Amino acid sequence: MNDILVCPNCNSKNRVGQVPSGRVPVCAKCQQALPWLHNGSDQSFASDLEAGVPVLVDFWAPWCGPCRMVAPVLEELAREHAGKLRIVKINVDENPQVSQNFSVRSIPTLMLFQNGRPVDTLVGALPKGQLNARLSPHLKH
Prior knowledge:
- This protein starts with a strand and ends in a 6-residue tail after the last helix.
- The protein is of the alpha/beta class.
- The model has no long low-confidence stretch (mean pLDDT 90).
- The protein is built from 4 helices and 7 strands; from the N terminus they run βββαβαβαββα.
- It has one domain: Glutaredoxin (3-Layer(aba) Sandwich), CATH 3.40.30.10.
- The strands form 2 sheets. It has a 5-stranded mixed beta sheet with strand order 3-5-4-6-7.
C-alpha cells in the first residue's frame, strides 16, 4: 500500500505506506492525524485490518447507485474521525474473496472491525447521522 493522503489541517499531500501496528498516519508537515481512507484488496485485507483504531470496511461496486451515495459520506467521516477510524473500500467485483468470506450478499455493506474481528454490520445507504450514531460507541473520543 502506498496512498496519498491530504492533510485537512495544512493541505499537505502525504505518501503513506504501511503504518506500524497500533499507530495512525500523521502529516509529515504539521503532525496532525490524517484521514485514513483507501482502497483495499483481497491480498491486502488482512493487513488492512491491522490498525490501532476501528476499521470500517465498505463493500461496494462502481455500478451501484447507493454505493456512490455513501462514498462522500465516508470521505467526510474519514476527515472528521482522523486518528480514530480507518476506512477501507473493497470493490466486490475486483475482490470477490473477501466479500465471500464475510457472506456479503447486498451492497453497500459496511462492516466495522475492532482488533481484526467484525463487531457491527450495516447494509444499505445510511444517512451520515445514523452512520455516525452506530460508529460512535466504538470510537475513542
